[in-house]
Amino acid sequence: MKKSSLIYLMCALALICVTSCHDDYQDYTTTGHILLTLPGDGEIETIQYSVKMMDLNSRNAVTVAGESDGAITVVNLMRGAYSINVEGVVRYASSDAITHTSQFRAQSDYVSMVELDDNIISLEMILME
After folding, report:
1. What is the model's pTM?
2. CATH label of the domain that carries residue 37
């Protein structure tokens, strides 16, 4: 009887140790969602972009390039503060329904990226005409 009680006690202690450690794990990475907007009226049709995000603490840079409709997602970022530079080419329809193509850039010197997945950054494009 004493031997089986000791075995049950040891199993219970091992289970408590294993389950108590799971709360110590934290996810240190996050996802950033960059929403680009045109200055004034108009609707973005497509953009070709290059994004450079620099961690202001470690100075590590993340670069992403691609094509989108104005929404850019950057995954596996370490949580922290970043500077963001976006540049590329945008095709858009102006308010008078004329299609334009222009180079653009957008930037921010400081963006906080501390949430797990809800880091939404809105940047207004600067058109290079």
Report:
1. 0.76
2. 2.60.40
